[in-house]
Design brief:
There is one protein chain. The longest helix has 21 residues. The chain is 38% helix and 14% strand. The protein starts with 5 loop residues before the first strand and ends with a helix. β3, α3 and β4 form a beta-alpha-beta unit.
Length: 281
């Protein structure tokens, strides 16, 4: 069996290559990172020496399937023209950084409807993403992954139907897929607390999106209850979801080979959580 792709969102402080070495130190085989400050609209470009250091780190550690998480400021479905313009520019810059580094996945939150109907927001997200088509030739490793959300406030993408709308509107134009966050899915109302529950949710996803578009997981327990629509991560097995969910995901024949990234609150036990997940297989 090929090596499991397990990791966490490690720190790129001092350079993106440092996130790779931190991943190796905690026993990860992949990591998620920020390529730039996620709380600023303007981000500096990646210099060639940074690209070289990043590629060297990958060679030295053997890590692969690296995921970038885009800026929290970006709202590709924004109704405010200024925010929409800034979001599209920031997202384009993020794609360019990912292409420079040879990153495999760019994970992003779809957006928020705010004062608009959900359908209009979803359509605007699709239009925003279609503007990025010129950056792709079809030869790049990069895939754009819409992250499933908890549905807080006016955030879209918490229903599989909404994720399906985005994917199927773009599947002929862009390398598009989905990253399911377990905390978000649970908070959105998908009951994944048992093996049977995970199986039902997988079937539901397959019906509304298509399982071939599921590319990755964020593995997080949830501080809040089923259907709470509140995004609060907890350590694995210490929240309202419970450990059986993560055992079931790791053992599911269609899910176990997908890359999985921890975003649990305490980095000091990521190594133990990675070992725990590996023990389930």
């Amino acid at each position: 069996m090929s090596e499991l792709l397990l990791g966490a969102h490690t720190s790129a402080a001092g350079g993106v290559h440092n996130a790779i070495y931190e991943g190796k130190a905690i026993g990860a085989t992949t990591v998620q990172l920020f390529t730039a400050n996620q709380r600023q609209w303007k981000a500096r470009s990646i210099a060639q020496d940074e690209v070289d250091l990043f590629q060297r780190a990958l060679l030295e550690t053997g890590l692969s399937h690296i995921m970038s998480h885009d800026s929290y400021l970006i709202n590709l479905g924004a109704s405010d023209p200024e925010i929409l313009t800034k979001s599209r520019a920031a997202f384009r810059a993020e794609i360019i950084r990912c292409l420079q580094l040879g990153i495999t996945y760019l994970n992003f939150h779809p957006g928020a409807a705010l004062k608009d109907p959900v359908e209009l927001c979803l359509q605007r997200i699709v239009e925003s993403l279609k503007e990025m088509k010129d950056l792709f030739t079809g030869k790049e490793p990069l895939q754009l992954l819409v992250e499933s959300t908890a549905g807080q406030g006016s955030t879209v993408g918490w229903k599989f139907e909404e994720l399906g709308f985005i994917v199927h509107a773009l599947k002929h134009d862009l390398p598009i897929g989905i990253c399911i966050d377990t905390c978000h899915a649970f908070a959105a109302g998908y009951d994944i607390r048992t093996k049977e529950g995970v199986e039902r949710v997988v079937d539901d996803f397959d019906e509304h999106v298509g399982l071939k578009y599921l590319k990755a997981f964020h593995l997080n327990d949830s501080q809040k209850g089923l259907g709470s629509r509140v995004d609060r991560h907890a350590q694995l097995g210490e929240g309202m979801i419970g450990i059986e969910c993560f055992r079931a995901i790791m053992q599911h024949p269609k899910l176990k080979s997908l890359p999985k990234y921890l975003e649990t609150p305490n980095p000091e036990i990521w190594e133990k959580e990675i070992q725990l997940l590996r023990s389930f297989v």
